[in-house]
Amino acid sequence: MQVEDDSLLYDENGEIKETGYLDEETGEMKRPWCPATRILDHIENERANKAADERKTSSSHASSSDSSRPKGGYTDFPEIKEGERFMQRNEGQWDFSMEEGADGRCLVLEVDIGKYIDTSLIKADIQPGYIRLLIKGRLLQLLLPCEVRPDGSSAQRSTIAGTLQVTMPKEDPQAEVNIAFIRPKPGSKTGGMACGPSKLKQINKLPPKATVQAMDDDDEDFVPDLA
Predict the structure, then answer these.
(1) What is the domain count for the chain?
(2) Res 135 pLDDT > 80
(3) What are phi and psi of 58, to 5 degrees?
(4) How far apart are CA 122 and CA 135, in angstroms?
(5) What Cα–Cα distance (Å) separates residue 46 from each residue in 17, 51, 96, 150, 195?
(6) What is the pLDDT of residues 86-109, one digit of tens each?
(7) What is the average pLDDT across 137-147?
(8) Are residues 129 and 170 in the same domain?
(9) 58 and 99, same structural domain?
């Protein structure tokens, strides 16, 4: 019984040469049934299965942030474990802006949450490198363009439009901001908002905690996902 030597089917680069041809009538690729075709079909099936597995894994990761939220929303901020990668999240799909104040000495976050959400349903957790807001059980979690002073920050609510404004003094008033995390209002220029007090309803913020590492291991900044 003669045994086929599959090694003869490979070229000098270790690749199987394409055995197919284009059918002029149908415009489809056709391959004759031979050992080389069997190997090509096997390789293509493996690649297709691998791509399907990768898509399934990617889809599972994309939905993990939603599946981790309890039904009915959070009652308190979820724990961020030490060394855990910080993921930006906007579960309520709120429109928001993140800008420097007019004098460049603070950061101002404005979130358009509407006027019908009671202020008692809003919590703020301000840390040196990030801010978290819990709005009616849904999490808005953002990295900051520079470090801020949580103890000097204030969170206020508009009595007319219901807009939430969080003002955060920079730890170093002269610090440069990472523009990757700046999000101006549409049609506005960064730095157009005052840092001083305004006639808005005050809400409480949580006491500061430890800073979470939010950058990768190399020296290049990255913009985390906004789920």
Answers:
(1) 2
(2) yes
(3) -60, -40
(4) 5
(5) 17, 9, 44, 53, 58
(6) 889 999 999 999 999 999 999 999
(7) 94
(8) yes
(9) no
Mark whether 61 and 96 lie in a shared domain: no
Q: Say which DSSP state 12 is in.
A: T
Instruction: For residues 94 and 190, state if they share a domain.
Output: yes
Asked if residue 126 lies in contact with residue 166, where contact means CB atoms within 8 angstroms, the answer is yes
Residues 101 and 185 in one domain: yes
**Alpha-carbon dihedral of residues 155, 159, 161, 162, nearest 10 degrees?**
40
Same domain, 103 and 192: yes
- Given CA atoms 211, 120, 161, 140 in this order, what sign does their dihedral have? positive
Task: Please indicate, yes or no, whether residues 58 and 99 belong to a single structural domain of this protein.
Answer: no
In the 8-state DSSP scheme, what is residue 226? B
Cα atoms found within 13 Å of the Cα of residue 75, Cβ hemisphere only: 1
Residues 32 and 126 placed together within one structural domain of the fold: no
The CA-based dihedral angle spanning residues 92, 79, 142, 176, taken in that order and rounded to the nearest 10 degrees: 170
Give the global pTM: 0.58
Q: What is the pLDDT of residue 150?
A: 94
Residue with tokens 């807001």: 133
Reading the block at residue 214, the tokens are: 């939010």
What is the domain extent for residue 58?
21-67
If DSSP codes are grouped into helix, strand and coil, which group holds residue 145? coil
Contacts of 78 (CB under 8 A, 6+ apart): 68, 139
Per residue in 167-202, pLDDT tens? 999 999 999 999 889 998 776 544 444 454 444 455
